[in-house]
Design a protein that fits this description.
Blueprint (H helix, E strand, L loop, with lengths): L3 H19 L17 E2 L1 E2 L29 E6 L13 E7 L4 E6 L5 E7 L2 E6 L7 E6 L4 E4 L4 E6 L5 E7 L7 E2 H6 L7 H8 L3 H10 L1
Antiparallel strand pairs: 1-2, 3-4, 4-11, 5-10, 5-12, 6-9, 6-11, 7-8, 7-10
Helix pairs in contact: 3-4
The protein binds 2-acetamido-2-deoxy-beta-D-glucopyranose (2 copies).
One 2-acetamido-2-deoxy-beta-D-glucopyranose binds next to loops.
Length: 216
C-alpha cells in the first residue's frame, strides 16, 4: 500500500501530466482548420501551411447588430473556429451578443472556456452560480465599458435591464468553447430524458414537464 506522501506525490505527478496533455504548447506557428481533413485530433486537422492566406485569420461582421426577434430577445454572433479557421488550436475566441429591451441570454455554460464580457451599449444584469453545495449566485449590473468574468464551466446568464437595446463583446478561452443551454439540454434532449426523471429532479408536476419538453 502506498504511503500518504508517495500517494500525494503520485497524484501530483498524475495531475501535472494530465494538465500537460491538455494544455500543451503549440509546436508550429499555426494550424488553420481544414474542414475537409479526415484527421481527427483534439481540435481540427491543419490546412497545408503553404496554402494558408490572410482570410484564414479574418472575420468580418462584428459591427452588425444581431437579430433579436426570438423567444429570449437576444442573439449571439460567435467568432469561434467554425467562423474563423485560423483560431484552431489557439485557445481563444470572440463573440457579440445583442439584446432587445429585457432580452436575456438564458442560463448556460461553456464546458471548455472562461468568458470575459464587456458591455458596448446599454445596461446588462449578469450573473453566475457557483457549484454545489453553495450554489452562490454572484450578480452585478454592468454599464457600457464595464467588464465581468464568468469562470469556466459555471452556469451564467445576462439580461438587458436598460430601456433600449444592449450589446456586449465576449472573449472565451477556447477556439471551440461549446455551449450547454440548461433548458435545452434538460428539457430539449433528443430523445427525451424520461419525464419521471425530470418530475423528481425538479419536483415538478408531470404536466409541467410535458409542457416544457414540448417547448424545447
Ligand atoms: C429577424 O428574425 C425574424 C424571426 O426569425 C424574422 O422574421 C425577421 O425577418 C428577421 N429580421 C431580419 C432583419 O433579418
Ligand atoms: C445602442 O442602443 C441604442 C438604443 O438603446 C441604439 O439606438 C443604438 O443603435 C445602439 N448602438 C449600437 C452600437 O448598437
Amino acid at each position: 500500500m502506498a504511503s500518504t506522501p508517495s500517494l500525494f506525490f503520485g497524484l501530483m505527478a498524475l495531475s501535472f501530466s494530465l494538465a500537460l496533455a491538455i494544455d500543451h504548447n503549440a509546436l508550429q506557428d499555426f494550424c488553420v482548420a481544414d474542414p475537409q481533413s479526415q484527421v481527427r485530433v483534439n481540435g481540427l486537422g491543419c490546412k497545408d501551411p503553404k496554402l494558408v492566406e490572410a482570410n484564414d485569420f479574418f472575420f468580418s461582421g462584428l459591427h452588425l447588430v444581431g437579430n433579436t426577434s426570438n423567444a429570449v430577445g437576444s442573439r449571439v454572433t460567435p467568432v469561434a473556429v467554425s467562423q474563423l479557421p485560423g483560431l484552431n488550436t489557439l485557445g481563444i475566441s470572440l463573440g457579440r451578443v445583442d439584446f432587445a429591451p429585457w432580452g436575456i441570454n438564458p442560463p448556460h455554460t461553456h464546458p471548455r472556456a472562461t468568458e470575459i464580457i464587456t458591455v458596448i451599449n446599454g445596461t446588462l444584469e449578469v450573473g453566475f452560480v457557483t457549484s454545489n453545495p453553495e450554489n452562490r449566485h454572484i450578480t452585478k449590473v454592468l454599464q457600457k465599458g464595464d467588464v465581468f468574468v464568468f469562470p469556466v464551466g459555471l452556469v451564467h446568464y445576462q439580461r438587458n435591464v436598460g430601456y433600449g437595446n444592449a450589446a456586449a463583446i465576449v472573449a472565451l478561452s477556447s477556439q471551440n468553447p461549446g455551449v450547454i443551454t440548461i433548458a435545452n439540454s434538460v428539457f430539449g434532449a433528443m430523445p427525451d430524458i424520461a419525464g419521471d426523471v425530470l418530475v423528481k429532479a425538479f419536483q415538478l408536476d408531470k404536466n409541467i414537464v410535458t409542457n416544457l419538453q414540448a417547448k424545447f
